[in-house]
């Protein structure tokens, strides 16, 4: 389907920055391609801090991502366009990408669903995750693989899904049951430290 001129104009404004300031391109490439590993590490750190609050937050982020991805797939069946580098001339394409439906941005769906879930629970550092999500969204435009509309739609789906998961997941009793059973298994697999701590208490 045809892309609006506004979508193209905003894309050009962001994508052309990489032509004028090539020294910033490695940062954009890192944000666009590798920030996902930072997000994964953050989720692992929160999970293994072994607090119920953090673990429920990670679960909410995972549920939000699934919900947002379903919304994205439905939207993708109703609206289709390829990546900017496949449709426009003189695009500053900085990473390789298959030519397929670029709408909406899967990276934006992932980052905004998870990072907004973090913000809802842990506002003290949650704003930093939201900043990362915004940077990732802009970077996907910068490197030439998404239009602004793809990113904004993905962000919207992610935020809406995060709000739904924040409200829904704590109400699901089976989630708490599964989490409690997981923690029992985890404790049974890590008895050594507990025994060592008990030993030193006797001194």
Automatic annotation (TrEMBL):
- Molecular function terms from GO: undecaprenyl-diphosphatase activity
Tell me the superkingdom of the source.
Bacteria
Q: Which organism is it from?
A: Neobacillus novalis
CDD domains on file: PAP2_BcrC_like (cd03385)
Q: Which residues form a coiled coil?
A: none
Domain Phosphatidic acid phosphatase type 2/haloperoxidase, chain residue ranges per copy: 60-166
Keyword list, A-Z: Membrane, Transmembrane, Transmembrane helix
Any one Gene Ontology cellular component term annotated for this protein: plasma membrane
Annotated SMART domains: acidPPc
Q: What is this protein called?
A: Undecaprenyl-diphosphatase
Stretches that traverse the bilayer: 27-49, 61-81, 101-120, 127-145, 151-169
What taxonomic lineage is listed for the species of origin?
Bacteria, Bacillati, Bacillota, Bacilli, Bacillales
**Carries keyword NAD?**
no
């Amino acid at each position: 389907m045809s892309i609006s001129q506004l979508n193209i104009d905003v894309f050009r404004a962001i994508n052309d920055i990489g032509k004028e300031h090539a020294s910033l391109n490695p940062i954009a490439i890192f944000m666009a391609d590798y920030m996902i590993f930072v997000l994964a590490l953050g989720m692992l750190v929160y999970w293994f801090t072994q607090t119920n609050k953090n673990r429920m937050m990670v679960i909410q982020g995972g549920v939000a991502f699934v919900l947002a991805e379903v919304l994205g797939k439905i939207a993708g069946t109703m609206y289709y366009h390829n990546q900017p580098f496949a449709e426009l001339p003189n695009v500053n394409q900085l990473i390789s990408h298959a030519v397929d439906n670029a709408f909406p941005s899967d990276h934006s769906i992932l980052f905004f669903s998870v990072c907004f879930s973090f913000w809802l629970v842990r506002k003290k550092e949650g704003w930093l995750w939201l900043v990362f999500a915004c940077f990732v969204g802009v970077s996907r435009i910068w490197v030439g693989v998404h239009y602004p509309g793809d990113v904004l739609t993905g962000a919207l789906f992610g935020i809406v899904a995060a709000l739904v998961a924040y409200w829904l997941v704590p109400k699901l009793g089976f989630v708490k049951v599964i989490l409690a059973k997981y923690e029992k298994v985890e404790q049974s697999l890590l008895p050594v430290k507990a025994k060592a701590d008990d030993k030193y208490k006797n001194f």
